[in-house]
Amino acid sequence: AQVAPGAAHVPGWLDGARQRELLTACRDWARPPAGLRTVRTPGGGTMTARQVCLGWHWYPYAYARTVRDGDGAPVKPFPGWLGELGRRAVAETLGPEQARAAAYDIALINFYDGDARMGMHRDADELSGAPVVSLSLGDTCVFRFGNTETRTRPYTDVELRSGDLFVFGGPSRLAYHGVPRVLPGTAPAWLGLTGRLNVTLRVSGFPD
Ligand code: MD3
Ligand code: FE
Q1: Where's the Fe2OG dioxygenase domain (predicted)?
Q2: CA of 148, nearest ligand number
Q3: Which terminus of the chain has fewer CB atoms gathered within 10 Å of its CB, N or C?
Q4: What tens digit of pLDDT does each residue of 81-126 get?
């Protein structure tokens, strides 16, 4: 379903088997070196969602090839199959033209426990305007999709559930967004995940 211009939500896009596969891969990527870490902002704040990166390492507010704000290890490679998954997501929602240009090279994986949230922000550290692909696993969250001008109203709250796909292209690419809350205990029992996990795929636009 189109939520805003360039923004599409597809509930249950990943079937159960794909959700389990993606979760297994995320647990593997979370292991050290260059594994799951707590992100600290320059202002002295701490992000409540913990994160692991593939391809390029994000730290507030830039990208690097090593874990600049953690163990210093080289960032894990971005796997080809994940890029193909991203391109298929874009092709099915925004069309084949948009998918052709989307050479995904970054994954940011955020792990949320029941108390974690993410404040309203824009993703503007990438040079490319290619669509961002978001895949959710585990507990349902309230996702707040805002506007491009302010971090306040008007915004739309959408529940993101395990297996859901969200694609943010066109004018939605630079919209403010956040996760005001996670709904504990709502993950499907067969997945075996406590909390919520979100994988975003991005195109850096950086030279190799
Ligand atoms: C809209 N993640 O990683 S997913 C992020 O659920 C982030 O972990 C949230 O915001 C999460 O930056 C929200 C949905 C999402 C991701 C990236 C976007 C929405 C976006 C980039 C541009 C516009
Ligand atoms: Fe974001």
Answers
A1: 103-205
A2: 1
A3: C
A4: 999 999 999 999 999 999 999 999 999 999 999 999 999 999 999 9
The rounded Å distance from CA 136 to ligand 1 centre is 10
ipTM for the predicted complex comes to 0.95
Q: Residue 46's CB: how many other CB atoms inside 10 A?
A: 9
Most ligand 1 atoms within 8 A of CB, residue of 3, 177, 197 to mutate: 177
Q: Exposed, middle or buried, 61 (CB in 10 Å: 0-12/13-18/19+)?
A: exposed
Q: Is the peptide bond before 154 cis (omega within 30 degrees of 0)?
A: yes
2-130+137-160+168-193 to CATH, choices 2.60.120.590, 3.40.190.10, 3.40.47.10, 3.40.50.300: 2.60.120.590
Judge contact between 165 and 199, C-beta under 8 A.
no
